[in-house]
Amino acid sequence: MESHEEKPIIYTMENKPIVTCAGDQNLFTGLYGLLSQQLPREPMEWRRSYGRAPKMIHLEANFVQFKEELLPKEGNKALLTFPFLHIYWTDCCDTETYKASVKEDMQRWQGALRLHGSTDWLVVVVESDGKKKNKTNILPRTSILDKIRNDFCNKQSDRCVALLDPLKDSSRSQESWNSFLTKLRTLLLMSFTKNLGRFEDDMRTLREKRTEPGWSFCDYFMVQEELAFVFEMLQQYEDALVQYDELDALFTQYVLNFGAGDGANWLGSFCQPVRAWSGLLLRRPIDMEKREVIQRGEASLLDLRSYLFSRQCTLLIFLQRPWEVTQRALDLLHTCVQELRLLEVSVLQGALDCWVFLSCLEVLHRIEGCCDRSQLEANFSHTVGLWTYATEKLKSLGYMCGLVSENGPSSEELNRTVDLLAGLGTEKPETVNSLQSPYKKLKEALSSVEAFEKHYLELSHAALEMYRAIGRLRSGRLVGKSLAEFYMRKGDPQMAQTFLQDALKSYTAEGWSLPITHTRKQIAECQKQLQKTEDYLQTSALLASDANLSDEERKHFCQEILTFASQASEGKALLLHRPELDKDMTAFAQLRELQFHPSAATVHIGAALQLELRLCSLMPVPVHLEQLVCTVHYSEIRPAPAGSQRRPALSPDGTVTFPATSPSRGAAPGPAAPALELQEIQDRSPSDNALNSTGVVCKNVHLLMRINDNPASLDPPSAAASAITVEDGAEMLKANDVTLLPGNNSIVFSAPAGSYTLRQLCATVGQVQFVLPHIYPIVQYDVYSQDPQLTVEPLTESLLAGLPQRVKFTILTGNYTVKKGDALQLSNSDSMPILHSSACSACILTNQVGEASVSIQSSEKVTSISLPQTPPYHTLEFQLEVLCHIPSAPARAESERLTNGEVRHRPKNRTRYNSGMASIDQKVSVDCPWSIYSTLISLTFYTPFKAQHSLLSAGKRKYIQVCLRNVSDTNFRLANQTLADHQCTPSLQLLSLNAKTHQLVYSKQCVYSLWEVKWATEPPSCLQCVFTASFSPADAPDTALKPYRYEFQIERVTTLYSVKAEIQPAVGEQHCHAGALCRLEVSITRVMDPSEAEREDEEYTESEGLRTTKLMYEVVDNSSNWAVCGKSSGLVSMPVAAMATHKVQMEVMPLFAGKLPFPSIKVSKYLAHSAPPTTQPEADSCLENDNLSLLDKGLEDQGDTASLRSRGSVHSLGSGEQQQRGPPMPRLESFSPGQVFNCSMARQVLVLPSTDDHVLEVNVT
Amino acid sequence: MAVCVAVIAKENYPLYIRSVPTQNELKFHYTVHTSLDVVEEKVSAVGKALPDQRELYLGLLYPTEDYKVYGYVTNSKVKFVIVVDSSNTSLRDNEIRSMFRKLHSSFTDVMCNPFYNPGDTIQSKSFDSIVSAMMVQSS
Known about the structure:
The complex is a heterodimer of chains A (about 1250) and B (about 140).
Chain A: H1 2-6, E1 18-23, H2 25-38, E2 43-46, E3 55-58, E4 62-65, E5 83-90, H3 95-115, E6 121-127, H4 129-134, H5 143-151, E7 160-164, H6 171-208, H7 217-233, H8 237-259, H9 288-295, H10 301-318, H11 322-342, H12 351-370, H13 373-378, H14 380-400, H15 411-423, H16 438-447, H17 449-470, H18 473-489, H19 493-510, H20 513-530, H21 533-544, H22 551-571, E8 582-584, E9 589-597, E10 602-604, E11 610-617, E12 623-634, E13 655-657, E14 678-684, E15 691-698, H23 701-709, H24 716-722, E16 731-740, E17 743-750, E18 754-765, E19 768-772, E20 780-784, E21 789-794, E22 799-800, E23 804-812, E24 823-827, E25 834-835, E26 841-845, E27 849-853, E28 855-858, E29 862-866, E30 875-883, E31 919-927, E32 934-942, E33 945-954, E34 957-966, E35 972-981, E36 988-992, E37 998-1001, E38 1006-1015, E39 1022-1033, E40 1042-1051, E41 1057-1064, E42 1072-1073, E43 1078-1086, H25 1092-1097, E44 1101-1103, E45 1106-1116, E46 1122-1125, E47 1129-1135, E48 1141-1150, E49 1154-1157, E50 1160-1167, H26 1179-1196, H27 1202-1213, E51 1227-1230, E52 1236-1238, E53 1244-1248
Parallel strand pairs in A: 1-4, 1-5, 5-6, 6-7, 8-19, 10-20, 22-32, 41-52, 42-53
Antiparallel strand pairs in A: 2-3, 9-11, 9-13, 11-17, 12-16, 12-18, 14-15, 18-19, 18-20, 21-23, 23-30, 24-29, 24-31, 25-30, 26-27, 26-30, 28-29, 31-32, 33-34, 34-38, 35-37, 35-39, 36-38, 39-40, 41-43, 43-48, 44-45, 45-47, 45-50, 46-48, 49-53, 50-51
Chain B: E1 2-8, E2 14-19, H1 25-46, E3 57-63, E4 67-73, E5 79-85, H2 93-112, H3 125-136
Antiparallel strand pairs in B: 1-2, 1-5, 3-4, 4-5
Helix pairs in contact in B: 2-3
């Protein structure tokens, strides 16, 4: 009763264990309320037989008045009506009454009990104080109790209890009440144990007899269910459920055995044709109708199963396990369907569907009835199976009854519907009032097409929602597909398509090829109906290439494409290109391989670069392509180095293999993202090819980035397919009228000039284009054009001037074909003639070497070299001998200033030779047949020699020395050195003092030659000399001698002054002594009369009628051998007359002993300030002024030249010589080397050590 | 006994799927694919347990009217799915387990083959024959 109030939804049985009450009914009635209330209050431990775990149990009882009919008759197995305890109530308290009536009554009661073998009884003696007070204590209080005990309970004294004043609220009565209840409970449990145990034993015995022929499952069912009832009555639902599960298993086993051929007779009744399919009924605790049918042994399999399940369901709900109900329900439905099939029970077509549908909904309703919404939502995973099952069944019913077709049901289908509805029977009274009952739903759904659609969609969407909610997307897709089929049947391809596309997406994402094919076929149907031509074409292409389909199907779809293509081209022949008809090529054909001939993928423009595409056609039939176009992208400038890393995909034989992709497989199994495509880049400076920077560049960032943008996208291929773009305006390779056979095809393109990257492949079938939007990995090829090139380079390391040198001409013909009669025209230059060589042949190089002759014709201005015929991209090589004349002008050292434009010095940085080697750049202009412009070729020749001359004097005699230095690396033989006067002065004679005619000059060594200059009349003031010699390499024959010329000019040859120094020891000394003063006498003598030129040149001062010139002398001792005492320099006035002598004396002191060289005496011209200013800005003068200022120190004390002294101050004031326009400065001018002859040059004087030297300084070096 | 045996890669694409030729292959593909839902559910539920206690056998994934679908997942998340005819009730759980064990060991052999590229569809003959044995036994 309590449970009713707490959980009103639980449909519990009204049954409670029956306890009979005999004796004083009035007494009992007074106590009844209290008793039935108090009994379940405390739990009792119930110890069980067969090792079952003890349980705490709240006992309840149904107290009924004792009647003999209540006692079970022999053989009656009913447990529910079984009285478990018999109680006799009495409040008799005096012996008389007891003896008179009560005892007799009790004996009768006992007799009845004994008759039925019941030993579970209890006698309750109620004692009240009130009664006691009324009736005086005749007997001790316990006497009646004792008496009863004596009379009835011979051994079981506990079966008689006293209850003290139960209605009073005293502790004593309370105590006695409690002990009574405990006793009651104990006895009840004892009775349960005993009676149930006996019952179970009987039941087992019965079960063991199941192999016997007459055994009936239904009978046994009733027996075991009785037990279940009792457990349920005792609220032992678990145990009750076990009973049903056992029955279930037993039955299942029988069915299986039957299926295996081991039939049991009693199963025959279950094999009767199914006539009713009203579904489960779960709203009653016990479906008595069904139970009675079972009891009668008339139940069909469905009846039995339904009943069994309804009981299980009830118990499970009591046990708060509703989700198990759904689980079991699904199992049950499946089992029933299976079992009916197994037992070959004849069922009206669709009847089971009805039954399953109704049952599913019934279970769901039942579950919904006992759970709140949030619970339901959390357990969609348990209910969704039922929803789906119901949906499937309704769908199949709909198909069966013609409710799905567009035209509505046919009469046959209507008849079937009527039959099915008949089997439903009438609606159960429980659900009559419910608008949403499964019964009403089914009836309505089967009543009309519209209603069916409504219910079907409702169910489907509910299932879809649930799947989505619990993340079972794949199951959801399947429901979606089923919906799509429905929509297709209804003629609504639009709706169907969305579901199919969703499903396709998920199959593609996970790479399930068969479902993909199947779904795609359905989509194709949709698209065809929807007239989505473009999509249909794409799908058809995919299907036509689908290996999962049969050939016929593939051909069908291929034909669809071809038909469309031809239709379109007929109908709209001049229709412009329709981009929406561009289809992804991967479905149509696959690019498997690509091969270049030649393999390097780099050819020059004349040669043929062939590009062979290996296309694997996936079409089942040959397909005629009107055009196959490979779009290429022109790469402007490519990093030039011909490294092999440039084309990573290219194998050595020029083949690029493309990864095979399966259109039906989709992207999931393979790498979805394209691989990183990295390329090394090197930035080199254009001038010297030095590496500026290097790095790695990702060339397909755009692809990678796009994929990263939407990582959630499961379906990159379809996304890409929708966005196929044909690159317009790009250059393309074309092949017309190609027939693609199924399987591998090879198509050859020849490539145009340029560096190209393959971008797209596009096949045109009629109006349909199949496009491969990206060719990956990236493939590039180069067809380059190369202009012919002429290079001229020395054969040796450097070219030497003056000798015939071989020069190699190399012509890279590039794209130019050298024809017969083509010639190079070289402009002749005088300084570099081209030597004719008898054996002049050219090499033509390609892979092998060819020989051809080159003929050379020379005219006055040009040398023409006629070239042999040479095909393009060959190398033509020949050699020419050239000779560069050494310029006769003095070879200039690099420090010299440039004057002549024709002869140039090489820039410093290019010189590999030491600075001693002069170079000559020779330009040759060459007219090439392939160009209207002349090519200017520069050759650099090096002068092998460097000549230097010097004028040597011995008094008045003059000698010219020429030093020829071999600055080259070659050894030379030198012959016929001659020196000639340019002017051919007759009086002049150059006398050779050289002995040998032939001399060897080794590399980096010098040869000196000497001539004496003799003159008859007047010594020449200026000599123009030409040195000539013949030279040849040391190992060459004499005939190879080549001239060498060296021109030079010597001025002021004549000796003007002779300077002589004398050192005299101190007076009275024989020798000079270190540390002692000596006398130095310098005598300067005018040797010559002034010549004509001199008269004009020099500055003379007239003094005392005599023409004098001012000379400055200096005594310079650079080696610190001498200390000049007093004036070391001074001015002398020299008369300009022969033999005029001026002597200067000064004192010097030798600082060391030994043979000391004379201090050198320098004589310079002194030009007074009155000298014409024109000479002043001379650069040299500054230097000389500086020298002078150094000397100032010596001059200072003298003070004889005030102007000199003041010059110093002026110098300090003046900020620069060039600004100095004030008083002109006196200055010194040195003589030319030949003009002053120093007689005492290199003279030495013996100096003795000083006599008083105490310290001898010894330097050891 | 088995009507369909499938090996499904970690990424849920089929590595191997074979069904009895008499029946609609496509249906089994759908069934196996759908069963992945339940596999995922079970794996994620099992995943919460300690890893060494993980049971590879997932048991009955879901019954349909005609078939029972059993699942098994290796430690490397490769799934095995065996579909059994519902009418074949003699099949006990233990037998299914032993089928899965056989399948697993054969699969391990396939993986050990140095010429097998993990992730490719299985074309091993010995694996095929093991599967055949499982399917033949039924009839």
